[in-house]
Design goal:
Largest sheet: none
Oligomer: single chain
Distance between the termini: 77 Å
Strand content: under 5%
Length: about 120
């Protein structure tokens, strides 16, 4: 994960933890019955859990989308490089074959001249 992603995850976790602590402390100091306070804490914890799941789902989808985009870009770039290398190889191969044929002809001509 990138440094930016780690920072974002840390900030998100800190905000959720701070919100949860603030809610719990607020409820504990509220002038209500213990049973009612526990019920409110339980409900708020459930709400925070749901919010965390939703945020996790959103972040997870963004990461999957980015991975897919990066993967596609990488594959496309790799294919372009492979085609460029193959084209260059074919070009130089043809030139080498042509030059080799010319050299063979020159050598054969020289040999024929020497035989005479």
């Amino acid at each position: 994960m990138s440094r930016k992603g780690k920072n974002t995850a840390g900030i998100l976790a800190g905000l959720l933890a701070g919100a949860a602590a603030g809610v719990i402390l607020g409820m504990l100091y509220a002038p209500e019955e213990g049973k009612e306070t526990r019920k409110k804490i339980k409900n708020k914890a459930s709400d925070l859990k749901d919010q965390a799941k939703n945020k996790y789902g959103e972040v997870s989808e963004k990461v999957k989308d980015q991975y897919s985009n990066i993967s596609s870009t990488f594959k496309e770039t790799a294919n372009n490089v492979a085609h460029t290398v193959k084209d260059g190889y074919d070009k130089y191969k043809d030139q080498i074959v042509s030059k080799t044929a010319d050299v063979v002809k020159d050598v054969e001509a020289e040999l024929n001249d020497l035989k005479k």
